[in-house]
Amino acid sequence: MEEYKGTIAEIIFHNNENGYTVAVFETELEAFTVVGNLPAVSVGRHYRLRGEFTMHPTYGEQFAIREFEEELPSTEDGIRDFLASGAMKGVGRKTAAAIVERFGENTLQVIEEDPGQLCGISGIGPKTAAKISEAFKQHREFANITLYLQNYGINSHYAMKLYEVYGADTIQAIEENPYQLVDDIFGIGFKKADKIAEKMGIAHDDRFRIQSGIKFTLTYFAGEGNTFLPQEELCEKTGQMLDLPMQQIEDNIAEMAFTGEIHVENLDNRTVVFLMPYYLAEQNVCKCLSMINDAGLKPVAGKIDSLIQRTERSTGIFLSENQKHAVTSSLKMGVSVITGGPGTGKTTIINTIINILEDSGLKTAIAAPTGRAAKRITETSGHYASTIHRLLEYYFSESENRMRFGRTKENPLEYDAIIVDEASMIDLLLMNGLVSAIRPGTRLIIVGDSDQLPSVGAGNVLRDIIDSEYIYCTKLTEIFRQAKESMIVVNAHRINKGEYPDCNARDKDFFLLHRSREKDMLQTIKELCLTRLPDYYTDLSPVADIQVLTPVRKGLLGSINLNKELQEVLNPPNEALEEKTFGDRTFREGDKVMQIKNNYQMAWKNLEDFTEGEGVFNGDVGFIRKVDREFNELTVVYDEVRYVTYHFNQLEELELAYAVTVHKSQGSEFPIVIMPISWFPPMLATRNLLYTGVTRGKRVVVLVGSQNKLEGMVDNNRIKERYSGLVYRLRRIFSMETAGGDADDFDQMDQ
Ligand SMILES: Nc1ncnc2c1ncn2[C@@H]1O[C@H](COP(=O)(O)OP(=O)(O)OP(=O)(O)O)[C@@H](O)[C@H]1O
Known about the structure:
Number of strands: 30
Low-confidence stretches: 743-751
GO biological process, one term: DNA recombination
Largest sheet: 7 strands, antiparallel
Protein name: ATP-dependent RecD2 DNA helicase
Bound molecules: adenosine-5'-triphosphate
Mean pLDDT: 90
Oligomer: single chain
EC number: 5.6.2.3
Strand order of the largest sheet: 23-22-26-25-24-21-27
Organism: Lentihominibacter faecis
Structural class: alpha/beta
Domain AAA+ ATPase: 332-476
Shape: globular
Distance between the termini: 62 Å
Strand content: 15-25%
C-alpha cells in the first residue's frame, strides 16, 4: 500500500449513507482523484490516505482508499479551512478567519485547552466558546473511533450512529460484545454484527453468537407478525443461519430461558419460544381484558332502548336490529368488539354510543392507532379522536433513556368509556400498553374491520379477540343504502366474500383499465397521475389526493420503481429545486414523502398556530419544503402546517410516497386510489390485500391490469398464518371462567 498526506481540494461525489467519496486530493507535489470511504468529508480537511492507484476504464487512474487517518492542519490557511469546513457546527468562514487571525498556528491548541480565550472574537461569548471547544474534542474523538472501526469494516455512516449511542465508550462496547449492536443501533442487523465479530476473531460457536442468533431469528419473525416461534422451527432456522447443529441451538435456548432472556412454554401441544416482551404482553393483555370485562360499570342515564330512540330521532338514522345490539352490548359490557366492512355503520354506531354516554354524563375517549386514522375519525364523527400513543401520554424518559407510556396501571386513564377504532392495526405491544392503563370500571369498546390486513407489528390482536369468543362481539354485515351507491363499498364486500368486483359500471367510481404488460401498466399509471385524473377531478390536488398503492416494494410495479418513475413526471429535476441523494433515493424540493418509522422525539413546529411538539409517525405523509445543503438539512411539512427538519443523517427515515405499499397505507384513506394488478408473489397477491387496498379509496378506485390477475387475487384467500398465543390464552380464561374458575388463576396459568 502507498501512503499520501494532503488536503481535500474538491468533492466530486459523496454518499452520506455509506461514506463513499470521490474527491480531488492535493499533496505537496501533485493532485489526483481519490475514491473510497471517507466519513463526513469536507473540502479543506487533511488526511493521511493509504491504498493503491487503480485504473478505471472511464475515469482513468485514481487512488483507491483502503485506510485513512484524519490529520489536523498545521498552517494558518489549513486551520482556517478546517474550521470553516463544516466540521465544527456554528463556525462559518468569517468566524474561522477571525479566530485564526488572533491565534495563528496555535488556534487548535487554544480551542482544545483554553477556549475561554475565544470570548470576544467576532461575537463569541462564553457559551459559544465552550460549544466550539466541545465540538472540536468530539471531532477528534470521533476521528479516532472511525479509524478504529475501519479495521472491522464499519463505514463512516455506522461509525456516526455508534458514536451517537455509545459516545466515548464506542470502542469498549464493541470489544465487549459486538452482537449488542443489533439491539442498540438501528440498521445494524445480526449479519452485519456477525461480520464484525468474525473480523474480531470471535469463535463460530461462541455463546454470544448463538444467543444473539436466536434472538435475531425471533426478532425477525416478530417483524413478520409472529409473537412466538415453535422451538423446532426456531432451532432449524437459527441452525441454518449460523451453520451450527440444532442441538447446540437447543442447549442455548434452554440457557436463555433459564436466565429469563426468553420464555419457553407448551402452547397448543407444542413447545414454543417467546421473546420476553411478547410473552409478558400476551399474559398481561389477557389478565387486563378479563378484569375490565368483569368489572361493574357506571350505568347510563335510562333504558338503553329509549336512549337509542332519542339519538335516532335527533340524527334521523334508524339503527338496524344488529346495530342496536352493537350499541347495547358495548354499553353493558366491560369489553366489547364491533366489527364490519365499509359502509356497515361502524361510524354511525360510534356516534350513537358517544351521544348516549355524553348525555349520561359519562366521560369518553376515542382513539386510533395512527395519526391519520385519528384525524379521519375526528372528521367523520365530529368528536375529537387522538392516537392511542397520545392518549397514553407516550414520552421520552430521560432517566431510562427510552420511550414510556405516561398512563399505566399506576396512573390509569380516567374515563368511563374508551372507544378504539381501526383496531385491526393494533399490535400486541400497543394493546398491552392500552389495557394496562384502563382501570376496571371503564368500558373498552373495540371497533375495526377484522378482514383488513393485520397489524404491522407482531400479534393478531383483533382476530384473536374475536376468534377466542371470550369477548362479546357484534359482526356487522348489512351495507346501508347510501353506502350501496358506492361501487367501492359494494365491490369491497364482493371481494371479501370471494366474488369478483363489478368494474366499469357507468358513472361509477370503480374502474379496471385493462393492460396486460407491466410496461403498459406503468405508463398508464403515470398518465393517470399526471393528466387523466387531475384533468377530470379538478377540485382535487393532483399529488396529495391521488395515491398509488402497490402490493410490493420491488420490481417494475413495486413502490421503489413507481416512486422513481412518478417523481420523474410529477416533480422532475429542475435547477430551481434543490435536491439531495441518499443511497438510491433522491429527495427533491416539492416531493411527496412518507416517514417510515415512529420517531417520538422528532421535533415539529406548527407554523399556523405556533405550537411545537414532538413525534413523527410511521405512515405520516408530507411534502419536502426545503433542502438545505449548507446545513445538511431537509424540511418536510406534514398536514400543511407541521414543519419537521431532518438532518441528512436521518434520511433513512423517509421514503418517496407517490406510491406506497398497501401495508403502509393501512388506516389511511385517499380520495383517489390507483393500484396495479399484475403478477405478484402469491403470498402478497391475496384477497385480503386487495380488499385493504380498495377500501383505502373514498371517491374513486382505478385498478390497472388484467381481469385474470384480479380474479386470481380474489380467489387467493390465503391469510398468512401468524404465530400468536393470545387466542389460546383467551380461550383458556373463557373455559376456566365458564368452569367456575377465577381470573386470579392467571398467574398460575402458564407455569
Ligand atoms: N341504520 C342505518 N340506516 C340508514 N343509513 C345508515 C344506517 N347505518 C349507517 N347508515 C349510512 O350508511 C353509510 C355508512 O355508514 P358508516 O359511515 O357509519 O359506516 P362505516 O362502517 O363507518 O363505514 P366506513 O368504514 O366506510 O367508514 C353512512 O352514509 C350512514 O349514514
